[in-house]
Amino acid sequence: MKFYCKHCLHCEQIGRQNSTWGSIGRKRYYCKHEGVSNIRDKHGFVIDGFVGFGENNLKSPLVLKTSPRWCPIKRSVKDVDSM
To answer: Number of helices (H) and strands (E), helices first, in the chain?
Structure first.
């Protein structure tokens, strides 16, 4: 089963669009799941939950096709399936 961050309730747009004079920028999307604060990257630092950027238009929906490798929801389902 594939997970899509576009449809996840934990995926939120935070902050403003990164726009410059004369052009519309894209938004940044972050995962606000409570399990993200426990996940560390390969160097041992806590990740900030950045999922991806939106399109370069006014509505700016998320461009990411599935979900990141570190997704806590995807990890919990894999743990249940392996039992």
So the answer is: 1, 3
Q: State the chain's mean pLDDT as an integer.
A: 79
3-state SS, residue 55: coil
Q: Contact 74/67 with Cβ under 8 angstroms?
A: yes
Instruction: Round to whole Å and give the CA distance between 59 and 49.
Output: 21
Total Cβ atoms within 10 A of residue 36: 19
> What is the H or E stretch that residue 81 is in?
helix 72-82
Question: For 55-80, what is each residue's pLDDT tens digit?
Answer: 887 778 888 778 888 888 776 665 54
76 vs 13, 35, 55, 79, 82, CA distance in Å? Answer: 24, 10, 29, 5, 10
* pLDDT at position 77: 61
First to last CA, the chain: 17
